[in-house]
Amino acid sequence: MASSKPAAIILGGVNTFSRALAQYLVPLEGEPLVSHLRIVDKYSVAPPTVYLGSEFPKVLEKPEVEYRQANLTVPSIVGSVFDQPDGKEPYSYVFDLTGEARNDRPEEVQIANTFNVSRNVALEAERRKVKAYVRVHLPYYNTPDKGEQSEKEDVKPIVPGGVWWHETLRALAAIEDLNLVVLRTGYVYGPYVDYGLFTSAMCITACYGYTKQPLKVMHSPGKHAFNTVHVDDVAGAAWACAEWMAKLGRKEADAVAGEPIAFHNDKSKVKALEGAALPEAKLVAPVFNVVDDSNHTFISFLNVPASFFGTSVEFFDLFTRAMAKINMDELAEDINEEHVGTWTKMITTSKPPVPNTPLSPYVHPQVVGLFEKHSIGLDNSKLKKIVGYQLKRPTYSHAELKEVIDKWKAEQSWPTLED
């Protein structure tokens, strides 16, 4: 007898948000939302070759969950990961969290790990006639400094990685029978999230709280938008959009929520790339912004952990900012060296010590946000109105940060220091 619950597959993202999505679909307590869940990524989970957090391994023990280690850059492997286990229903919901998570990697890596993987997965999903294909898009856009951009606005992808993440959306939108939904996230935070600027910001502000010095930043006056979203809402929105799409199908979903996906690339590169949509193609797909209601600026985003750890945020003087424009890499390395030294002292003097923590205050100079100006200002009203999704964590505040720190402390990834 067929289950009333769909079978789902999560592809990629174990190093970003797939762990939280898996736990949302098959919670540690309570009824699962799916009849069967397969998670596929390149990482080993036993033994782990990537940070898993303390709860995800428990999710993997659930009878409804299967983890498969596979290299999705190999096209011949992609089809096999969609083959359901004996006695299980075909996968009807696909959550695509694949893609190169480091924006600074060379273009050929971005194409291989982001564009090619996602397109091959999407073509297989179309062939299998899945009811919903949800593509989670990292915040690799730069919006205007002020105001919240709706999904209709043509926001510009950052280079080089953002360009290929965006080009991937065009390739997916061009697959007419793919039941595609695109989720554009803000800066994601939450328990066990060790990817992106959030973790660095937490460690850095903790360092300044420890040394009782103010945190200095580059972007005075720092008023550019910097939207956040809790990882629980990334997971919740992904599920809600899958349910929404499964009821409508692509054609009706495009009519209700379709948005144009404009071209933002080098025409010569795209024309030479197999599977890329033509630059002049007019492509449409359902797109939803997934951000919370905090409406943070860059400075208010930093002020939350700064005040949590007992420090403040100030700006570098004009001379330092001018010198930074000349040699950002050197300044960033000097700052990183100071941060890492303080962090090392914190984790070794912790009671108990935590020398094996996966967390670090180090920020690569090319990481957007902390050193380079980056605005993410998105309007979340469409997700609420059309899908009917209600945020579970509407604000980024001390309460949310305390939960994150408490869970890191419980698994001995965060230092426990005497006041």
UniProtKB/TrEMBL annotation:
Q: Which domain of life is it from?
A: Eukaryota
Family matches, as SUPFAM superfamilies: NAD(P)-binding Rossmann-fold domains (SSF51735)
Instruction: Identify this protein by name.
Output: NAD P-binding protein
